[in-house]
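SAMPLE LOG
Freezer: B-3
Tube label: C17
Construct: single chain, 375 aa
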Amino acid sequence: MCAILVGVLLLQAAHWFHSSAAPTQPDSPEPGLVGAISAIPSAANPLVAGSIASPGLPASPSADPTATLAAPPSATPSPRTQWAADAVLVQAKNDGRVIVDSSGQVVILASTPTAPVYPTAASLDTSWSGLIQEPPRIGTDDRGVAYRDDNYIRFCGPGVATVVLYYWAASKSNVKTMSGTFKEPVNLGAGKYASTYWKAEDPGGYGRGMMMYLGEVQWPTPDKGLSWWSHPGIMRWTVRKPDTYVENLVDGINWEASGRTRLNYFYVIVHASDLTAQTLRARVHADINMGVPVVIAARTSDGTNHLPAWRVRSKAPNHFVSVVGYDDAAGTYAVMDTCGLRCNDRNLRVGVRNMSQAALFALIRDESDNDGIMW
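STRUCTURE (predicted):
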């Protein structure tokens, strides 16, 4: 179970969630990496595999793209003394000017296109991504070595990032092939500093190599050593119960999805207090029909509603999941949860399950850190 860490909000409401991290892709071997990791692209030579289906979207914005593309946000804001959303990207997203083309690349249009008409129901292919699952805190790794690491119950941030990155051309191959031996960059004590080996595919769960890389090794270059990202991994490892802040999560996902070249690439944060049920549905419509998921920060239960495979509780933890489909006629969202056995409070392998759109919105609004969504 990805437990919540109640803490002091950092900088621009840096919120706790199931991981913490540190910046950049260093030139030397990265802390936390004990053995060799396969299939890691560089910013100069990103690994590109596959493409993203973009239903209803043109292969390019026009016959003459140079005439219709807006200048993208700068790759490296200067100076970046504190975390802040890129205003140009946020405005472009709100205007509907950010699209994913048929090659899986983000395109920012100079002018707002005609509002698209979305189908009543749509979903992403989850035949592989639906098997992505966090490792349990006690078990054997993919080499059969017994371990215990209580931090693993907090890996829903790296888990949701792994799901999202499966759908991006620049990171899909890494998600499907990453393997290696991993260890936290900070020793938080007995039972919290395991050295474990994980593959990309295993009956126990897919994507664990990438998940561990994101949680313990990833460090986007523009964020390296800054106040909100002092150690490798999107989880913040300087606290007793490491968790993922939504600011680290959005930077980490954008960094990988862009081929490790940009932080302000596609995903932006909409805090829960700024979200309505109608806005949530509109953001889900837009992203799903561009072939990518929406990241959700929610309470697992608000005493009435609950996420699939979680119990109704009055005091429940925060959690990261993703929306991978919707059916407006049925009033449901398809929600992907990477919690596995001994993670959620019903001891179930979760995967993709449908839930009420109204219930998910209520759980987003009830999440204690106001994290909201990334879309």
